Amino acid sequence: MTESAAKLIRVEVAYALPLKQTIVPLTLEAGCTVEQAIRRSGILARHPEIDLASCKLGIYGQLVAPDAPLAEGARIEIYRPLLIDPREMRRQRAEKAKQAKSN
To answer: What single DSSP character describes residue 50?
Structure first.
């Protein structure tokens, strides 16, 4: 392996909508951050609704800061804001099930 190849890492940037998922594979220099990878991936041009200043980011489901360094094979995930609190959603489902049972 050449010295320059040893300094490169492979990562993915992922963003999922309810009916569509975008995954962009990248090869970057070792030492790149989460934010740098997102910007270089071109995903912000494909999905202009992404606001890096306010959205949460993760690597394999673990929240990370935009300046977190990347490791080989990392899958960077861009999370959409929640439309409804998960606890509220469960409460609504339980209420609906209760009503269906009583009918």
So the answer is: -
The pairing of beta strand 75-79 with beta strand 8-16: parallel
Instruction: Name the nearest CA neighbour of 27 among 14, 44, 47, 13.
Output: 13
Q: How many CB atoms lie within 10 A of CB 21?
A: 9
Q: Rounded distance, CA 21 to CA 94, Å?
A: 29
If one counts every other C-beta atom within 10 angstroms of the C-beta of residue 33, the result is 17
Type of residue found at 14 = A
How is the beta sheet containing 62-64 ordered, strand by strand?
A: 21-29, 8-16, 75-79, 56-59, 62-64
Average pLDDT in the 44-71 region? 95
Residue 100, pLDDT score: 84
Q: Considering the entire predicted model, what is its pTM?
A: 0.75
- 99 has a pLDDT exceeding 70: yes
